[in-house]
Amino acid sequence: MLELKELKEQIDQFLEQQMPSDIDQPTLASSMEYSVNAGGKRLRPALTLTTVQIFGGQLNQNVMKASTAIELLHTYSLIHDDLPAMDNDDLRRGKPTNHKKFGAGMATLAGDGLLTMAFQWLTDNQLPTETQAELTLALAKAAGPAGMVAGQARDIEGEHQNLTLEQLRYLHRQKTGDLLSYAVLAGGIITKQDSTTKNLLADFGAQFGLAFQIYDDLMDVVGTAKQMGKAVHKDASEHKNTYPGLLGIQGAEEQLHLALKQAKKTQKKLVDKTGHDFSAYDQFLAYFKL
Amino acid sequence: MLELKELKEQIDQFLEQQMPSDIDQPTLASSMEYSVNAGGKRLRPALTLTTVQIFGGQLNQNVMKASTAIELLHTYSLIHDDLPAMDNDDLRRGKPTNHKKFGAGMATLAGDGLLTMAFQWLTDNQLPTETQAELTLALAKAAGPAGMVAGQARDIEGEHQNLTLEQLRYLHRQKTGDLLSYAVLAGGIITKQDSTTKNLLADFGAQFGLAFQIYDDLMDVVGTAKQMGKAVHKDASEHKNTYPGLLGIQGAEEQLHLALKQAKKTQKKLVDKTGHDFSAYDQFLAYFKL
């Protein structure tokens, strides 16, 4: 069983080696690779690959390709999110954002290329076609206009409105939760689990995703730019709706603990349902240090 | 056999009815639907559906959904192409461009949503999973960073360079040809043709695509804004590389005739190989009126 740190290394290496052969224009390649190789935490593909391992699956070339596709998609969402027309951020993972380095036109194309390439990687491998098709549909739903993109639209629209807690949860479920939910679910699709198990995996991912977003909001308030590798205190200055903004720091911390408690409950249900050892998920739940 | 005009009506209707249920944010929905329902010629899905019909396939709900996905993808490419950071166009199909109406942030998201939804539609239907997976891979390759997006990157990069005819052809093969090639190929994938036939279909699409791009360049020089529904004489003012710019109007017309001649040759090869009647393709070849 490879742990988070080793998985990150394998994912970094796979992305670096695999990308160049699928891009056929030099500046576009530089721009796409710049952001993908900027060294994120690789949480999403690591969630998929950990889940695959829990069910006894091998991390071969086909599984790596299908599982790292989500990192391409996640990176596209960051590049487009940072654009001048969106959040207008200059710094990401401690480096200039894509459009700061390559211009907004090329950054738009780099994002478009990564999003499209994600679906290429889901199907350009030797996994069974029913697995490829199921992954494609699940990712498209999670990332599309009823998932992540809807959450981003809601985020833009909500900037100058005061959302209720329920509205904020819904926004984040779409914007962050759906993709993290897919990340865990994908491990179940790849290893062909039954639908009850797949639903539990998706639940765990959604609960992890909620915790993740609350934590991110909290860090924007209490973290430093150096810790985060990006600008902090941006949310308040941009009138973003956040958990600490709505509930205060203590209230947001309570919500975070609640989400983690639910995720642990689902983790236990998965053990009961499948008989497998899900303690590898503890590495992800340990992410939230306050 | 439904003809081009009837196909366009069916496609318009299908898109209008199908889209709302897959979008979960009101402004995003308005923005996506605004551009998709702006009434394009629907050439790409019509090429797929015509090919399906030639091989005796039925235009049922599943085939309609998988075949109209390309129109979502094509529309995304227009929205992003028009953005201020790209071509900065104000007018498209005789109406304000998406970002003029919804702002550049929402227009970026509308494009992202349409691109993602295209892959959703390829897999959210009852076609066999091997067909869904084959369509997904073919579309991702055609539209991705070794296809359409690479062509767009090349276009941006080439604006202040003088390209050779060979470089210009390569750019357009990626930017326009690959997607039109996919449009024809998709009809062969849906009706499960052998690989020789699928290669011929892809060839026909690529040759049609080349003719299409030369024609579009010519119309930018000799057409009027009213005919075209968009600004003309833009290419020269933006130092775009074009066929008339490189070869003169007469030279570009010769290249157009050559591309059409090759497409007709491939059309005949398809008849010889399959025994089917490909005269329905004549409707598409009749598009190029000088």
UniProtKB/TrEMBL annotation, chains A, B:
Transmembrane segments: none
One CC-aspect GO term: cytoplasm
Protein EC: 2.5.1.10
InterPro entries: Isoprenoid_synthase_dom_sf (IPR008949), Polyprenyl_synt (IPR000092), Polyprenyl_synt_CS (IPR033749), Prenyl_diphosphate_synthase (IPR053378)
Cofactor(s) required for function per UniProt: Mg(2+)
One BP term from GO: terpenoid biosynthetic process
Keywords linked to the UniProt accession: Isoprene biosynthesis, Magnesium, Metal-binding, Transferase
Pfam families xrefs: polyprenyl_synt (PF00348)
GO molecular function, one term: metal ion binding
Catalytic activity: isopentenyl diphosphate + (2E)-geranyl diphosphate = (2E,6E)-farnesyl diphosphate + diphosphate
Keyword Transmembrane helix: no
Top EC class, one word: transferase
Record family assignment: Belongs to the FPP/GGPP synthase family.
Record protein name field: Farnesyl diphosphate synthase
Organism: Limosilactobacillus vaginalis
